[in-house]
Amino acid sequence: MTKKKIWAISIIIFILLIISVVIFKYILRDHKQQHSGYDTYTVKAETPIQIEGKAAPQSVKTYQYNSQVGTLIAATVEDGQKVRQGERLISYDTNTSKRQSMANKVNQAQQQVNKDVTQINQTPNDQSLQTKLTEDQSALSEAQQQLAQYDKQVNDSTVASFNGIVNIKNGSDASDGEPILQLISNQPQVKATVSEFDIDKIKEGDNVNIKINSNGKSGTGKIIKIDQLPTSFEDSTNTNAAQASQQGNTESNGEASGTQTAINPTVNNPSGGKDGAASKYTVIIGNIDLPIRAGFSLEAKIPLKTLKLPKNVLTKDNQVFVLDSEHKVHKRHIKIERNNDQIIVKKGLKAGDKVIKNPQVNLNDGEKIEVSS
């Protein structure tokens, strides 16, 4: 026998030996699994997102002494008093003749418009009457706007714009332009940030579990706003706005400058933040079901409904075997999405379902099996 034949036979024997070992291991694993049972995986929701933040009132309104409304008499509420929207907070000695004069202008303008309409009905083809009607209607609209603006100014300076708590500042000692009191909304909210890796997992309206650090009290709220831009953009915008304002002030003091600061500035090529640093987005949590003092720090958890699966529960055709209470398996087709090597369930399973790990190719729908875990 030649050396070539000996080498060929040796190689064939070696290959057969390897194949035998692989088959033996497969049979042994199948034998062990049949005797020890299948491992299972319980489907569960992804770990909640944990964030930290501070409580703040939803709104704070400062009521300043407005001499255009009248002469300040006094605040009609006490410090710390709870008030409802529409309740009077401040008393002024208003100039009633000023409002009456505005109301008279409205009445006179309305009478003139009515007179114009009557004349046009009598002489419909008179173009000059049509022109006069248009002018008088414009005068009426202007008079109505002036009266409405005055009433709004009085109402805005004296009446509670929302439910809240009163914080007296200078009270009746306030000078023109100084704060008389503040109205603090009794609806708290929490401002926090969420990483770019979690922002797509949440949406407005999602429930949030909160816990106050100082006293341990717990409650719930909802996400009411998610910023579209990262905090780095906000920081960049604020910096640019401050620089523009400073530049505008400098130019306005110059003798020959005709440049004006833009009221609605456009930021071109805004900063996206430092390279390599994860972006963060501001999230506002509202509809909180317990009182929180402004400034209190707290922890919040946002429960997630996302279901993830390990790779070893899937068959080749992306099906799973769901285990029932009688240890019978049911083959189920599910809809999944693969994202960064993660398997996310889109349809077909719910939290609490038990699925089989490493299902054998000969496992049948409805078969009763042994379970090890």
TrEMBL record:
Residues 133-160 form a coiled coil. The chain crosses the membrane at residues 6-28. Residues 317-356 form the Multidrug resistance protein MdtA-like C-terminal permuted SH3 domain. Residues 234-274 are annotated as: Disordered. Residues 189-245 form the YknX-like beta-barrel domain. Residues 234-271 have a biased composition (Polar residues). InterPro entries: Beta-barrel_YknX, MdtA-like_C. Keywords: Coiled coil, Membrane, Transmembrane, Transmembrane helix. This is Efflux transporter, RND family, MFP subunit. It comes from Staphylococcus lugdunensis.
